Amino acid sequence: MKSRPSNPWWATTSRDELHHRQDVLLRHFLKDRVVPFTAYYSKLFKELGMEAGDIRGTDDLAKLPFTSKRLIENPRDFVIIPDEHVLKHQWSTLRYALTHGPSATKTMLEEELRPILLTSTTGRSAAPVPFLYSKHDIVNLEEGGRRMMELCKSDPSWRHINAFPFAPHLAFWLAHHAGTGFNTFMLSTGGGKTMGTDGNLRLIGKIQPDAIIAMPTFLYHLLQQAAAEKQQWTNLKRIVLGGEKVPNGMRRKLRALCEEIGSPGVSIMSTYGFTEAKVAWTECMPPDGEEPSGFHVYPDMTFLEIINPETGERVPDGQPGEIVCTPLDARGTVVMRYRTGDLIDGGITYEACPHCGRTCPRLLGKISRVSDMRRLNIGKLKGTLVDFNALENLLDDTEGLGAWQIELRKRNDDPLESDVVLVHATPINGGNPEDLKQKISSRFGNAVEFAPNEILFHTWDEIRRMQGVGKELKEQKVVDHRPSTDN
Q1: pTM to 2 decimals?
Q2: 269, 239 in Cβ contact below 8 A?
Q3: How far is CA 369 from CA 21, 258, 309, 325, in A?
Q4: Is pLDDT at 4 greater than 70 in this prediction?
Q5: How is residue 159 annotated by DSSP?
Q6: What contacts 37, CB < 8 A, 6 or more positions away?
Q7: How far apart, in whole angstroms, are the C-alpha atoms of residue 62 and residue 303?
């Protein structure tokens, strides 16, 4: 299948034109692909007494209910599976056949609609859900990856390392296809599972990449080990992170380690994506000393809403809320108005980016998951809802603290007892454990009004094993060992 035609309007158009174009894309998408050919949405529109044409644009999406992970019980119901008779009589098919002939039309439709790749959700909070891609989706994946490379100011002549784990997950495949879409050298190491930390270090030392794409915790451990071994990666210019949140404290620690290995001034960008979107977005590269300006969204592929998570109503631009995603050009598995469970504290903006000038939508501020909020029973704070996203940011921003893990248990392992919060920690550069213990307790008290029950110190190797570095798809930074009936 040919490369996706270049759409410069995604990054340069005015807000009014952008919404007009999105309305057109949505109408055609619903009319020609989603409503006639997906079992779930075909049934939904009939139950609502609606036709595809009743949705004239993105504002009309409010007429449709949200789709949640819980609803995707039968993934096949969300796959575009065309009825051959209906497909043959669609005007778009007839027009293509008139200009290209029957054989070319058949090939075109097979490449557009036949699933050829499967990814899945990570399955950390529920059973993994498979998502199918056609060649059409892979072309979009390449284009999305190419745009990420441009936003990060990469160069096709550079050497790139994809250190995401080999797995049927979006992060790995997007990084892979970013390399092909940008026509650049991309070497996939498979993360820690395939080659281990030592194997990655040897390979990176030999390749001397210009850029590394990886999960924050895994890359942090790689860099920490490289610094401990006095390795020199003097060619490194970019770090692009995905799969986990990237607090400012983590960026600061990564920059310090890069200086130790001979690469000062490395630019660090974060990405945001999820399986259901079938794409991810990145920050643009900020000028020296400037903060990132938000995740740049591709409006020709996706429409994002920010809603009040309690009422489901859209909130004004720049206001916090939950991210809701609707694809505009997907094939294979499609979920409309998907509630991500991700909260964005700065909302969405359509103002031009102050760094790169692009006018595409941008997601602003920190992103946290609804599931990061956990109810704890801690003495007089019984039943308190604690924001573990804030605690993760707090720990990553703590000076002198290297790796860490929060563990939740029950006192005396009794399901009826109160909750216990343990912090497992590793000091940086042999720092004083007692000073660090006081600092962590004090910062906890200021943030959540309680201190950890115990702060336990470990070696780097011990904390790596506890986090599952190189073994887990996502390193375990918060573990809940309370009985499941109390979660």
Answers
A1: 0.89
A2: yes
A3: 31, 29, 12, 15
A4: no
A5: E
A6: 80, 81, 82, 83, 86, 87
A7: 13
